[in-house]
Amino acid sequence: MTFADELKSAVTPRAALLVVGVLALQLLFITSYVGALHHPQPRNVPFGVVAPQQVSAQLVGRLERLPGEPLAPRTVTDEAAAREQILNRDIDGALLVDPAGTTDTLLVASGGGTVLSSTLQGLFTRIEAADGRTVRTVDVAPASAEDFDGLSAFYLVVGWCVGGYICAAILAISAGSRPADMPRAFIRLATLAVYSALGGLGGAVIVGPVLGALPGSVVALWGLGTLVVFAVGAATLALQSVFGIVGIGLAILLIVVAGNPSAGGAFPLPMLPPFWNAIGPALPPGAGTWVARSLAYFEGNSVTGPLLVLSAWAVAGTAITLVTTSLKRNPAAEPLADEMGVKP
Asked: What is the mean pLDDT of the chain?
C-alpha cells in the first residue's frame, strides 16, 4: 500500500473536512474573544443627570461631547427617579449635582458589573476634578462580597449552556444525529427537559446556599437555569437534526464562540465593541446573564425581553427537531450512525 493509500485510509475526506472545520472554529474562537475583550471601553452608557434646570441641559450636552462618546446622558427629575431607573436597569448610573456645594454624588450599580461601575467612577473623578469639584460614589445595587467582579452570574450561565449542548450532543451521538422517528424525538426532548431541571436546580443551589456567591431566590434561579439549559440543548438538537454531526460545531459557534464573549460577563455590554454589543442580548449566554444579575441584584426587574429570547430558542429548537424528524429520515443512512454501528 502506498503512502497516499495509507493517508486516505487514515484520514477520510469527511474527516479532513471536519478537521478543517475545527481549525476554522478555533480561529473564530480566538478572533471573537480577543476582538470583544482586548480593549474594553464605555460606549453610549445609559446615564442620568440630576441637576437644576439651568445646569442640567448644559451638563448633558457636555457629557454627550466627551471623546469616544462613552455616555448616553439624559436628564432625570430627581434622586428617587434616578435610583428607580437604575434598579429597573434603564440606566447604568447617574450624577446628582449639588448646586450648593462642591461635592456631587455618583450613583452606580456594581451588581450589573463592577468593571462598568469602576469605569464610571474613574471617569467622573476626572471630570469633576477638572471643574474643581469632587465626587462621592453610592452603590445602589452592590455586588455581593462573595461575587468577585460580579462574574458569578456569568459563570453560572456559562455552566448551564455547556451542560445544554453537551447533553444534546450525547443524546445525538448515542444513536445517530437525527432522530429516527417522532417517539425517539420526544424521548430526547423529554430527557433534555429532565436534565435541564436537574442542572438548573444544581446550579442555583451551588451559587446560592452552598457558595453564597449570588443572593436572590433559589427558585427563580432554578427556573432560569432550566430554561437556559433547555434552550441551548434544544437549539443543539435542532442543528444536529438539520446538519448532522456538523450541528455540534455550529452550536459551539453560536454559544461559545459568539455567545460567551458577547454575554456582558467579563465586561458589561456598554463596554463591548458594537458588533458584540449588538448580538449579545439575542444569544442564550447574554440573555441568561442579564436575567441572573437582575434576579440577584435588581429585584427581578427588566427580565421580560431576555426571557422571551430564551423561550424563542427553546421553542424554535423543539419545533425544528420535531419537523425534521417528521421527514422520517433513516438513522442508518447517517454517516455518524454508520460509524456508531446503528442499525435501522
From this structure: 90
